[in-house]
Amino acid sequence: MTIHRLLAQMTVTDLDAATAWYTALLGRGPDTRPMRGLIEWHLSDTHGIQVWAEPDRAGHSTVVLYESDLDGRLTRLAHAGIHHDGPRITDTSRVLTLTDPDGNRAVFVAPLAPGNH
Questions:
Q1: 19, 51 contact by CB (below 8 A)
Q2: Do 107 and 62 meet the contact criterion of CB atoms below 8 Å apart?
Q3: What are the structural domains, with CATH classification, of the chain?
């Protein structure tokens, strides 16, 4: 058996508000609405994000996304009106943590260039 695809699921209280926020975060609307209460962004052929309306579980999800152009992402977030405190530097990466309206975390990670530790 082989797993061919992974979808991270973010649980929310208000699907309309979440749709607006994740659309701003990802720079485009959802790719599909497979069933009532569920929307999906397909970020590649092998991974994506689901946003699922389940108020009792909302606000306890995290997705970590490895970003090839964190500076470009920061610019897009500013244009989209998504507030953040900027990336923090770790031993190996720049890490930007964002919080959706329910308290879920979307974390963008970009590796530091060699010699920038």
A1: yes
A2: yes
A3: 6-111 (3.10.180.10)
